[in-house]
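# step 3/5: fold
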Amino acid sequence: MPDSFEKELNEILVDTFHSILQVEENTLKRTKIDLSISELHLLEAAGKSEKQGRTISKLAQELDITLPSVTVAINKLLKKGYVTKAHSGEDARMVYVVLTKQGRKVEQAHRYFHRQMVRQVSREFSEEEKQILARGISKLDEFFKRKSAEMNL
């Protein structure tokens, strides 16, 4: 039986996760961008290697989703004009996903949205609370990364 802290932590984590997604979805609805949150996060991951692009397998690994799911999503983004595919010069079998100008523009706007959201949240905390929160979230992140790694073995 979970103690009161575990119960409260569970509720906070679940509620916070849903609230963040809701804010992102509502913000996205107000734009004229024809993307889902998942597609936006895929653009974000693809944009991490601006010039060269990222392989579909790297994107799948980073986002922890299957190769076929990433392939389908990338093909949709290709049709919408947000990405292109480029073959490697050394190995023609290697295909890289590269953001188009339109894709970079949307990805930069999404990063700006995150910076603004974090800036606004930060204003709610004292310096001491910020340090405690950062340490706590870092520990949560480490825990979930370890769990994910264990589950993928």
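# step 4/5: annotate
The two ends are 29 Å apart (CA to CA).
# step 5/5: archive (pending)
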